[in-house]
Write a structure and sequence with these properties.
Blueprint: E1 4-5, E2 10-12, H1 17-20, H2 30-39, H3 45-48, H4 60-76, E3 80-82, E4 88-94, E5 100-109, H5 110-114, E6 118-119, H6 126-139, E7 141-142, E8 146-150, H7 154-163, E9 170-173, E10 179-185, H8 188-199, E11 204-208, H9 210-226, E12 238-245, E13 250-252, E14 256-258, H10 266-273, E15 277-283, E16 294-299, E17 302-308, H11 323-332, E18 347-348, H12 356-364, E19 370-373, H13 379-387, E20 398-400, E21 410-411
Parallel strand pairs: 6-11, 8-12
Antiparallel strand pairs: 1-5, 2-3, 4-5, 4-10, 5-12, 7-21, 8-11, 9-10, 13-20, 14-18, 14-19, 15-17, 16-17, 16-19
Helix pairs in contact: 4-6, 6-9
Length: 412
């Protein structure tokens, strides 16, 4: 059964939350990053990118130590405060498109992660796990929640709805025109009720944050072994998570751009595709697939629809059904020679919120040779893969909501 706990978050003062909140560090272009670091002294980017202070790139353990030091400075300057009582943090995001996500930030158990109460659907890279575990141990905090999802629950919905009728602790709008609201809830009755409801759930699913949760699990094991008085209740036994109902989850596809045709001519490539697909030329008009197992391909100035010849493709499990897996097994691996999706610089993955014109422009400029558009994976498909203990190819899902870093910080 799932164990979710409240915690004493370190968080911005009310007047500075909009200045501190930042997107994930990797999501910024160099130009965007430099502009925010230059113009906003309160941006959380100053903590996670401490080399800016010295105008040089700093990596490894030295960087981690500087991150910890910048974080301490923000606390010393009273930019951050810490709640005196453990809280659950109710978090609402209303996107500029009008989508609404309502969830709870709390601590999720690393033991639940290890015992598969918290289900995974994506492979992680051991190298990245170890690097992030070292980072967490040095800095001593986590500022970006793992996104977990659970089946819609009327009891939780009633609790969340009631709290969200009250005045929010934070309300701010980002430059992306998304509006964020946060309530800190320390009412003992509400806390116990929430803990009890989650304790009756035998499954939670990681929607986004596989490496963060895996690294937190590694760190928990290490600190447990170093602590002769370990009880299991220490903060390092939990990782910060944002828990939302499945109905609030939005999944977009990652598309594929390939730099070359693996030595094939256009004609040879199309003939090879004909083995597994019925192909129709759609001309120069933008085209996206409308059904599962159908793909849109842009090649040499023209769009093609690819319809899977199902009699030529064997489905044995929930992974085989996924379009990302079909594309890999029928085109990327056998025809284009891309066998390792995790470490191949011939392929890139623009996500489904990117305009079709971007993929077209990258191919028309000859930077890439061919592009494929897919339909997004469904929540059910994600859960089926996780329940079978299988893992999707990398860049299978682009998932929202995306929380800002630095709004609630979990110290261990």
């Amino acid at each position: 059964m799932a164990k979710i706990i409240p915690f004493k978050a370190v968080r911005p003062t009310r007047d500075k939350v909009g200045l501190i909140a930042s997107r994930s560090y990797e999501s910024y272009s160099t130009k965007e990053k430099n502009a925010r670091l230059r113009d906003n002294p309160f941006s959380f980017l100053h903590i996670v990118n401490p080399g800016y202070k010295y105008q040089k790139r700093i990596t490894g353990e030295r960087r981690y130590t500087l991150v910890r030091n910048r974080y301490r400075e923000f606390k010393e300057d009273d930019v951050f405060i810490q709640d005196e009582m453990p809280c659950f943090y109710f978090y609402k995001i209303i996107s500029k498109e009008g989508y609404e996500s309502n969830g709870i930030i709390g601590g999720a158990s690393t033991l639940d992660y290890q015992n598969n109460v918290i289900k995974k659907h994506e492979k992680t890279l051991e190298r990245k796990e170890v690097i992030f575990e070292q980072y967490l141990k040095t800095v001593g905090f986590n500022a970006e929640p793992v996104l977990l999802t659970y089946p819609d629950n009327n009891q939780l919905k009633e609790i969340i709805d009631a709290v969200m009728l009250t005045r929010a602790e934070y309300e701010f709008t980002t430059t992306y025109r998304d509006t964020h609201y946060v309530w800190n809830v320390n009412d003992e009755k509400i806390i116990k009720n929430i803990e009890s409801i989650f304790s009756e759930m035998n499954k939670l699913y990681i929607a986004d944050g596989h490496h963060r949760s895996a690294s937190s699990s590694l760190l928990a094991n290490q600190l447990k072994n170093e602590n002769p008085n370990h009880t299991g209740d220490e903060p390092y036994n939990f990782f910060m998570s944002y828990l939302i109902p499945e109905s609030n989850l939005r999944i977009y596809e990652f598309n594929r751009l390939i730099r070359d045709l693996n030595g094939l001519s256009k004609e040879e490539f199309l003939i090879s595709l004909d083995e597994s697909f019925r192909i129709e030329n759609r001309g120069s008009t933008y085209y996206k697939p409308s059904k599962k197992h159908h793909f849109s391909m842009y090649l040499d100035g023209e769009y093609y629809s690819l319809y899977l010849r199902k009699e030529e493709y064997e489905i044995n499990n929930s992974l085989d059904i996924l379009d990302v897996q079909i594309l890999f097994e029928t085109i990327l691996k056998p025809i284009l020679g891309i066998k390792n999706l995790r470490n191949n610089n011939r392929i890139e993955y623009p996500h489904g919120k990117t305009d079709l014109a971007y993929i077209k422009s990258m191919i028309d400029s000859n930077e890439f040779a061919v592009g494929f558009n897919l339909l997004p994976i469904t929540t059910k498909e994600l859960k089926d893969v996780a329940d079978e203990g299988l893992t999707m190819p990398p860049k299978s899902t682009f998932i929202e909501p995306k929380l800002r870093s630095g709004i609630t910080i979990y110290e261990f």
